[in-house]
Amino acid sequence: MTIASQRYLALDVLRGLTVALMIVVNTPGDWGSVYAPFLHAEWHGFTLTDLVFPSFLFVVGNALAFALGKYEHLGHGAVLAKLCKRSALIFLLGFLLYWFPFFKIDDAGQFAWSPLSHTRIPGVLQRIAVCYLAAALVLHCWKTRGALVFSACALLGYWAILATWGDYSLHGNAPAKLDLILLGDSHLYHGEGIAFDPEGILGTLPSIVNVIAGYLAGSFLRRTAPAQLRAALYRLVVAGVICVAVALCWNEVFPINKKLWTSSYVMLGIGLDLLLLALLMFVIDVRKITGWTYFFEVFGKNTLFIYLVSEVLVIIAFTVRTGGGNLYQWLYQHWFTGWAPARVGSLLFAVSFMLLCWLIAYFMDKRKIYIKV
């Protein structure tokens, strides 16, 4: 294997670890009984859960470092077509996921079609799709130096926009105002009690930087020979520490906030991802401690598909009626409550669901079924 094509196992493990944690934090048995690290910060601040989505974007960038080079020989037009097609498919899957199962059942048991006019447009996969496309185009057209300039302008520009046209509160932030103008109240997330979407339009700008950072880290490691890996990890650690330090300093004037996806939050996420990647590479690729890695490799081989499966299963469980509630609540109440403390039972439910998704991924891996978009 040449230096130019070097691929390290830790990159695949990081992707699988991110998916596993994302499933766990998305599916507690009871949202009222969750350990603090498995909840998003209420507004300003940072928890373990707040690292999941930026890490997902970071590993998208890692994968892009190995894929984009393969596209270059196709020609500019073919590269654009390939990138746009993949982005559009991911965006469409995300939108259909929020529309699924395309109908609702009222308390009387009557079916009614879910109108497109009240379907959420922004979302997790939608943001991934747009960030993937934007980062790939920036890197394809402007290369590394242009991507670094773009990243600096995006983070500083986003700070200027939020400081100039609003404040950093839930009710006064610029991203919410723009989403209401362009998308309307009925197409936005209402989980905060008002029409505010944490995956809205404006917040996508700094999110692109997470993908670019993942690409740069993946590209750097791709060019690193095994004999030079220790020195490369030292550079990753230094870069990670610098990013975290910048984030903490920036936090004093531009608070770390996942829901606004502030620039300080971007820097913190990138810094922690670099440190986590360096740690995984030291354990896996330097010390060769790999007996535990297959569990996460399985998730990493069908990342997007398993994420979709986990979301679809949850939606179905909430849709199926059982007595006075739904199947999701019934499973939690009958299998995970009464014999364990509330938070423990809630976490065990989430871990059990994650393991169910893992079994699906394991079944697919054993049969060499890999679904790519």
UniProtKB/TrEMBL annotation:
It comes from the Bacteria. Residues 7-161 form the Heparan-alpha-glucosaminide N-acetyltransferase catalytic domain. Coiled coil: none annotated. The chain crosses the membrane at residues 12-31, 51-71, 83-101, 121-139, 146-165, 201-221, 233-253, 265-284, 304-324, 344-364. The keyword Protease does not apply. The keyword Membrane applies. Pfam families: HGSNAT_cat. Keywords: Membrane, Transmembrane, Transmembrane helix. This is Heparan-alpha-glucosaminide N-acetyltransferase domain-containing protein. It comes from Janthinobacterium aestuarii.
